Amino acid sequence: MKKTLTLALLASMVSAAPFAAHAQSYTRLVSFGDSLSDNGNLYTATGNPPPPYNKRFTNDLVWNEYLAGSGQGFFTPPATINTGNVYYGWGGARSDSAANSSGPIPGTPTQIGAFLSRGGTFGANDVVAMWAGANDIFQALPTAAANPATASTYMTGIAATAAGNVATQVGQLSTAGAKTIVVMNLPDLGSTPNFNVDPSTSALTSLTSGVFNTALDAGLKTQAASHTGTNIIEVDIKSAFTAIVANPSAFGFSNVTQACINVTACVTGSQDTRNTYLFWDGVHPTAGGHRVVAALTAQYIYTPTLTQGVGMLADGSYNMRRSVQSEMSGLFHANGSKGGYFLQVVGSQAERHMNVAMQSTIGGATSTSDQSAYDYSLGGIRAGAVQPVNDRLSFAIGVTAMTGDAKAMMVQAKPTDLSVDVGLDWRPGAYFVTGTLGAGITSYSNYERHTLIDGFRETANHVDTTAYSASVQTGFDKDMGGWTVTPVARLSYAAAKMGSFNEQGVVAAVAFEDRQVSAFSGAVELQASGQLSANTRLSGVIGYEGVFSGDAGDLRGQLIGNTAQAYMVSMGDVGSPGALVGVGVETRFSGFSLKAQYRGTFGSDNQKDQTALISLNKAF
Questions:
Q1: Can you give 285-338 as a three-state secondary structure string?
Q2: What distance in Å separates the CA atoms of residue 129 and residue 112, rounded to the nearest whole number?
Q3: Cα–Cα dist 301/67, whole Å
Q4: How far, in Å, CA of 367 to CA of 358, rounded?
């Protein structure tokens, strides 16, 4: 199975877990906005900001450069405007075309107009970004401060207007052909170093940025409803930065209240030292903060890719049911002629891999890596009985309970599986037919999905899956002088269904729909057993099991509370178990038998399923 990953783990940006992905590819990034997205446009025009700024309003690069690499600025000749990243953001830009106190700075309407008038177009795989509105607020605060009695009302109107401007421009970009648009909201501006010292100023600024975010969300919902051909994705900067300010060490920061540029030990320190501060100056992040923005944006854009490991919940449950069913078919047949009770201690390990192609940045080259589709280890017990009905027919029942750990890509959880199997074994002479029915429930507790920012995890209290199976096998026992050789052919069906659930998390949580995995399989085996001594018996099996027809249902989800469109990820094919080998040794004493057994299957995509058990049996 081969998948394509569209963004590698931004390891140089933040600490995060490895991941794999569905085939989701973007060609370039086109961004509009203010100083947060300015890769040097204001500096080219005015020489500002001066050192120690890096020609940008930070100490190194800005978020779009970390996400997609270098890009053409506002002053790049338009001949190449459609062949590479385009970064038109300007320091000081407003969300409108009003006069700017910092000089003739093009607001976002002017930036968009310049791009389109210069022949700029949007390809189907382009990502277009909009991040604006803060300067509208900053430039209105002095007027609000001069009239405290009306300050809140005045700033509420400013924020609502700015948010409406951004939403309208998102609609304009969609009309111009943009198919994927990411829109950042504003952090809590009241917590930035410029405003967090004075309580009244902080409160007013926090109120204003909150009003902006609420109005922006409403406006984007309206635009998304009107522009269904465009995926409009909201990036929740506010929630992310609030979490970082509340617990900075979890995200690799040591100072989230002061501006690095005002602290001598920080501004004269190394880049690593500077990036332990969240803020470079009064309102702009350090490069460390911009790296968080880049990783957060990637988390939202690549949600279909980054959630693929959730498919494990259905895949793993399907494989557990298929494996238990196969074991029970053999167990019921082996005990069918004599009847009795059995108690087993069971250990099971299974995994399957995928060959994944990963892209280091938007538009970058791809590289291939091996990733886990599922990997679980379980331990538990099994108990049951086989009851002869007559000299040809016996009835059997078994209950299996196991628990352990499971992981896949960026997802980990603790499965607890409880299942019941029943069967009939019919022996008209040397031939036999064994039929089984089984069902199980797997509850995945401690569900956790890693994100591209190690401090953010998506969780769920538990996720439940159900599974069921049926099988019929036939063969005959051939006595060959102390050894019994048994050819077996088996047909089986197994299915598992993951129930819908909602993740819980600060950013980029997803609501998942039901997902089902099912397959018809066939197996052939050659079993053999013989006496080593009067009380000891050796057994072995070789064979092959393959899938005739399978359906690995798509993984479907949607970002919670977001304008982003629902998505569907193809999960490939149901894997075939492959070659089968097994060995066991049994000893008898005082009416009991004690058996140690190993059974394993080894298929394609590094798929393997291994079970080891110790079984105590007592004949009736």
A1: ECHHHHHHHHHHHHHHHCHHHHCHHHHHHHHHHHHHHHHHHHHHHHHHHHCCCC
A2: 11
A3: 11
A4: 5
Burial class (CB in 10 A: 0-12, 13-18, 19+), 578: middle
Length of the chain, in residues: 620
H helices of 63-107, where?
63-68
pLDDT digits (tens, 9 = 90+) for 188-216: 999 999 999 999 999 999 999 999 999 99
DSSP character at residue 249? G
User: Given a cut of 60, is residue 15 above it in pLDDT?
Assistant: no
103: alpha, beta or left, given left = phi > 0 and alpha = psi -120 to 50? left
HEC profile of 49-65: CCCCCCCCCCCCCCHHH
* Greatest CA separation for the chain: 105
Give the pLDDT confidence score for residue 355 in this predicted structure.
Answer: 67
Contacts of residue 605, Cβ cutoff 8 Å, sequence gap at least 6: 1, 352, 353, 354, 355, 373, 575
Average pLDDT (530-538) is 88
- pLDDT at position 391: 85
Please answer whether residues 3 and 357 qualify as being in contact, where contact means their C-beta atoms are separated by less than 8 angstroms.
yes
The C-alpha atoms of residue 167 and residue 161 are separated, in whole angstroms, by 10
Rounded to whole angstroms, the Cα distance separating 616 from 586 reads 10
Reported confidence tier of residue 101, pLDDT bands at 50, 70, 90:
low
**Strand 592-602 relative to strand 483-498: parallel, antiparallel, unpaired?**
unpaired
pLDDT tier for residue 17 given thresholds of 50, 70 and 90 = very low
Kindly state the helix (H) or strand (E) to which residue 412 belongs, with its residue range. Answer: strand 411-426
In the chain, DSSP finds a helix count (H) and a strand count (E) of 12, 25
Paired sense of beta strands 431-450 and 277-279, if any: unpaired
CA distance 222 to 124: 22
Burial 283-312 (b: 16+ CB within 10 A, else e): bbbbbbbbbbbbbbbbbbbbbbbbbbbbbb
Confidence at 347, pLDDT banded by 50, 70, 90? very high
Span 387-433, pLDDT tens digits:
989 888 999 999 999 999 999 989 999 999 999 999 999 998 889 99
pLDDT digits over 568-582, tens only?
988 888 999 999 999
Q: Helix or strand or coil: residue 270?
A: coil
Of the pLDDT bands very low, low, confident and very high (cuts 50, 70, 90), residue 367 is low
**What CA–CA distance (Å, rounded) separates 313 from 413?**
9
Which CA distances in Å does 332 have to 328, 397, 595, 610?
6, 8, 15, 19
pTM (two decimals): 0.92
- For 272, residues 6+ apart whose C-beta sits below 8 A from its C-beta are none
CA dist 598 → 346, 400, 450 (Å): 10, 17, 34
Rounded CA separation 222/193 (Å): 34
The CB density around residue 566, as the number of other CB atoms within 10 Å, is 13
